[in-house]
Amino acid sequence: SDGKPMVSESMFLHPSYDSALFLNDIALVYLSEDVVETPYVKISPDMVNHPGTSMTVIGFGQTDQYDYFSGSSYLQRTNVEYMDSGACRLAYPKENIDAGMMCASSKNGNDSCGGDSGGPLLLTPTDNPIDDSLVGIVSWGYGCGDSRYPGIYTRVSRYYDWIVETMCSYIYEDGPPKYCDVFTSPEADEFTGIEGRIDNCGVEGVACHSSDECCSGRCDFFTNTCFVETKNDGNRPGRVSNGMGGAGGGSAPSRASRGSTEVDATREIARDLP
């Protein structure tokens, strides 16, 4: 691909990560240089919770779940839909689908697969990539592309405060980002280190310098504005591809991480397959 490889200097694994159950399956990577070639993808404490919400997953992973060497040379993308947590637990009755996870699938077998783990699940409401937001991280599932078993993703909104607090605790050569000057960590729950309040009040865009100043309990420290719950059911049209994790119905179910991959720093080269 034409992407730019980036060098990782440090990695910060969530302190409650459980590799056996894929709980708190999230880490932050500090790069040796800024990524300036493409717009940053925003993160948000707003939780996706409307069944059928369309999202885009991208990665270089397997396009055939039975072929370990079917990874793509080009960044692939496909659309999946959010599945209610209750329905997801019915699909995985023997697994622990906790509040730090979210589920997504598609009726036509589009899915993330081996080699996509750690890749982004995005809300892409407009044609402008500056409006994209990161809502999930590819984590695990039973096989790939089987409509009986949705893909399991780390729910980024659950870890928003941990992400900001970890970033602001890092010792930067040139000083921390500006938003760290006003960051005030809210009281965290014992299990995840994340406050569990739901954002459902307040006025969008109200200025804030700490979460306590927002009636929703959430201040976006990147923009210094209060968050409110948003309903986003749209996605950028024309991004569906059958190239990721082709349908593999009938596979023997077993929990498996969706592998690992080094993703290039650009998202502009993503292509749909024919």
From TrEMBL:
Keyword Glycoprotein set for record: yes
Keywords: Disulfide bond, Glycoprotein, Virulence
PROSITE patterns from the UniProt entry: TRYPSIN_DOM (PS50240), TRYPSIN_SER (PS00135)
One term of GO molecular function: serine-type endopeptidase activity
Statement: the UniProt record of this protein carries the keyword Disulfide bond: yes
UniProt cross-references to SMART domains, sorted A to Z: Tryp_SPc
Occurrences of domain Peptidase S1 (ranges): 1-168
GO-annotated biological processes: proteolysis
Gene3D superfamilies on file: Trypsin-like serine proteases (2.40.10.10)
CDD domains in the record: Tryp_SPc
Positions of the UniProt region annotated as Disordered: 237-274
Record field: compositional bias (Basic and acidic residues): 264-274
One Pfam assignment: Trypsin
PANTHER family, per database record: FI18310P1-RELATED, POLYSERASE-RELATED
Family: Belongs to the peptidase S1 family.
Annotated protein name in UniProt: Peptidase S1 domain-containing protein
